[in-house]
Design brief:
Number of domains: 3
Helix content: 40-55%
Structural class: alpha+beta
Number of helices: 14
Shape: elongated
Number of strands: 15
Radius of gyration: 39 Å
Largest sheet: 5 strands, antiparallel
Strand content: 5-15%
């Protein structure tokens, strides 16, 4: 008869199981390291390649979003000289997506000599322009070769299409229209998307150096100058806003119609002392720097002392001398009425600082209206140069690169999955393509050389005789071209597809099958992608332990072939890429 185990026996069994698991841990840990080392040697190159691809796509998306958001953010750094070289009192009215700045270098930086700017521009054209074109063409043609190989198992392609993809040695300027003609009127691929994308990629590859060269350039540093009443050009930063006009200023020993300016805008846009002068432009209908109207930081600023007295007086007694009461200006008592003070920048109803229709600027006791400044203001270059980018062209080029990257990935994924299912591993290279094309052309050109009869009369002693000789017509390039284009309509070359798939099961390459196979990996990647953002929002900036977490987890999942191998790779990746940098960052910050 079966007797249930006693509690003492249960505890003993559990303890022995725990001891067994603990004793197995060193063995599993060593085995995991051996497996991880083997996996790392076999897959680290492919993992690094996929990391570069992911960084490339994320970088393009981030750059595109940054340019979209920067259209409004960059306006805060503009002065009276706009990126297109025009003079304006309202920099916020400029739009980086405006067509006037298409060929202008609107994102320029630096202060360099002409030689330095020219050297940077030439290096950019060579490295990014020509180097980028070579890399773009190499990646594209590798993917095209894979895709056309799978397409040729379904329907043939013309000789010219085959030669363009597998034996590209001609000019794309001629090859693109011929490829379009073959796709439209002769043998097409089995996917319209693929045909359109291939033509787009070829045109993009052809124009890439021109696009890259056009979106960069150098220009002279410019400064805003205004022609004064004396006929001299002075920096616009030397002008002040006209804040007040004291019509009866003689009552406070200043003289009538005394003009009160802002005392020189010597502070930065955010009010930092000892920064570069600020140009008195208009920002969203307000003054660019209304520091002397504030009552907190600048209360003790020397340049604002008198201005603050006037501002405080206006705040208490109002504008235009409408109150018939005793008033006090600074330490001086004034009998009724109050001072007759007018302001072109104060709204009398709300007493807020803003641009008014009669706004004026001041330079050496002479006032200037908005019309005067717009008429006499100019942006003049100095001896320094800037190098940078065209905003619109940069946006277009990044968008085209993103479209190309996504399209290439889709085409590669499609061709890769089809080749896996059909068990095909070999793609025609330069030498094999020559043999395949020659064989197809020879088969379809059978009978091109036709015999003709010639009569050769020779004199013999016993009488005349006639001989018939077969002479082959020489095969010329013109005759071959005529035969291919006219009679064969471009020719055709194809591969024989297997009747039954002898590769991997097709269901294994569907999206749903991939999600099911990697459901736990996806479940781990989603929170790891959010952790860096959450740590940046809620934790100290000195805590960077979660920044590399998505890359570490992705590398462990891709390289490791077993669970133990993935744990080991993730462990050491976390130590090297998260813990060690965090220790260094903490040590340097203290």
């Amino acid at each position: 008869m079966f007797e249930p185990p006693t509690p003492q026996q249960d505890r003993a069994t559990s303890s022995s199981a725990i001891r067994a698991k603990v004793s197995r841990f060193p063995t599993l840990w060593r085995e995991g390291h051996r497996r991880a080392a083997k996996d790392f040697r076999a897959r680290w190159r492919r993992c690094g390649l996929w990391c570069l691809v992911a960084m490339w796509l994320v970088g393009l998306i981030f750059a595109l979003i940054a340019l979209i958001l920067a259209d409004s953010e960059l306006q805060y750094d503009l002065g009276a000289c706009l990126p297109d070289g025009s003079f304006s009192l309202d920099p916020d009215s400029y739009r980086y997506f405006s067509g006037s700045g298409f060929f202008e270098i609107t994102l320029a930086f630096g202060s360099m000599t002409f030689t330095q700017a020219k050297a940077i521009d030439v290096a950019w054209d060579i490295v990014v322009g020509r180097g980028g074109q070579s890399l773009l063409a190499y990646i594209s043609w590798c993917v095209f070769a894979n895709y056309v190989t799978t397409s040729m198992e379904v329907m043939p392609v013309t000789f010219r299409t085959y030669r363009t993809i597998f034996l590209q040695n001609g000019s794309l300027l001629v090859g693109i229209p011929r490829l379009i003609r073959d796709f439209c009127s002769r043998h097409a691929l089995h996917s319209r998307f693929a045909m359109v994308f291939m033509v787009f990629t070829m045109a993009f590859s052809l124009a890439f150096p021109t696009l890259v060269s056009s979106l960069t350039g150098y220009k002279g540093n410019v400064g805003a100058f205004v022609k004064t009443a004396q006929g001299n050009y002075v920096p616009f930063s030397s002008f002040d806003y006209v804040s007040f006009v004291i019509h009866d200023g003689s009552r406070i020993d200043l003289g009538d119609d005394y003009i009160v300016g802002t005392g020189g805008l010597e502070q930065g846009k955010r009010g930092e002392p000892n920064s570069s002068p600020v140009e008195p432009t208009i920002r969203n209908g307000n003054l660019n720097d209304d520091k002397c109207f504030r009552y907190t930081y600048y209360t003790r600023h020397e340049s604002c002392a008198f201005h603050l007295n006037v501002t405080e007086y206006v705040r208490k007694y109002g504008l235009n001398g409408e109150n018939n009461v005793t008033s006090k200006f600074g330490d001086k008592e004034l009998p009724p009425p109050v001072l007759n003070i007018w302001s072109p920048v104060l709204d009398t109803s709300t007493m807020t600082v803003q641009k008014g229709p009669s706004m004026q600027w001041l330079y050496e006791k002479t006032t200037y209206t908005e019309a005067d400044l717009l008429q006499d203001g100019k942006c003049q270059p100095n001896l320094a140069y800037q190098w940078g980018f065209s905003f619109i062209q940069s946006f277009i080029t990044i968008l085209l690169l993103l479209i190309w990257s996504i399209g290439i990935y889709i085409m590669w994924l499609r061709s890769h999955s089809v080749m896996k299912r059909r068990g095909r591993t070999d793609i025609a290279g330069e030498h094999k393509a020559v043999l395949e094309l020659a064989q197809a052309m020879q088969q379809q050109h059978a009978g091109l050389a036709s015999p003709i009869k010639e009569q050769d009369e020779q004199e013999e002693k016993d009488g005349a005789s006639t001989t018939t000789t077969a002479v082959a017509i020489p095969v010329t390039e013109a005759s071959l071209r005529h035969r291919v284009t006219k009679e064969l309509r471009g020719g055709s070359i194809a591969y024989t597809a297997p009747l039954l798939a002898n590769g991997e099961i097709a269901d294994d390459w569907t999206l749903w099958a991939w999600v099911k196979a990697h459901k736990w990996s996806i479940a781990g990647m989603v929170p790891s992608c959010f952790l860096p953002f959450l740590s940046g929002l809620f934790l100290s900036q000195s805590i960077a332990v979660f920044v590399a977490l998505p890359i570490e987890l992705a590398a462990a999942l891709y390289i490791g072939s077993t669970r133990a191998s993935r744990v080991v790779i993730f462990f050491w990746g976390f130590i090297l890429c998260s813990i060690v940098p965090q220790i260094i960052l903490s040590a340097t910050s203290t």
